[in-house]
Design brief:
Blueprint (H helix, E strand, L loop, with lengths): L1 H10 L18 E10 L3 H6 L6 E10 L6 E11 L3 H6 L2 H16 L3
Antiparallel strand pairs: 1-2, 2-3
Length: 111
């Protein structure tokens, strides 16, 4: 969540007065990220051939009004890494998480 919060503040520093406040006000939005798939893959397989051992993160992002629980927007966000060779073997799931957080922030900001 901290990566997503950081990316929102970086991409749109003036858009939100607060993120995850203790007591949301009347104009607050609640963002929920439901991870549906989290595959760390296999570095050795990626080193052997691109497409093998791929890493994948897939989630549903839902924005709701915390006062009424009305769903305002939903987004389907995916990030996959399938490069091969040395680059594929050296890439970690944490590297893919950074790109995934950027994609979630962009979905929340509707970019």
């Amino acid at each position: 969540m901290n990566l997503i919060k950081h990316d929102i503040q970086t991409q749109a520093p003036q858009r939100f007065a607060a993120i995850n406040p203790q007591s949301p006000g009347p104009q607050a939005l609640k963002a929920e990220v439901l991870i549906k798939e989290f595959e760390e893959g296999n570095a050795f397989a990626r080193a052997m051939l691109a497409g093998l051992g791929q890493m994948h993160i897939h989630a549903d992002v839902r924005l709701t009004d915390p006062q009424t629980n009305e769903v305002i927007a939903t987004h389907d966000v995916e990030k996959t890494f399938a490069w091969g060779g040395i680059y594929g073997a050296a890439t970690r799931i944490q590297d893919v998480e950074v790109g995934f957080a950027e994609a979630v922030a962009a979905a929340i900001l509707e970019k």
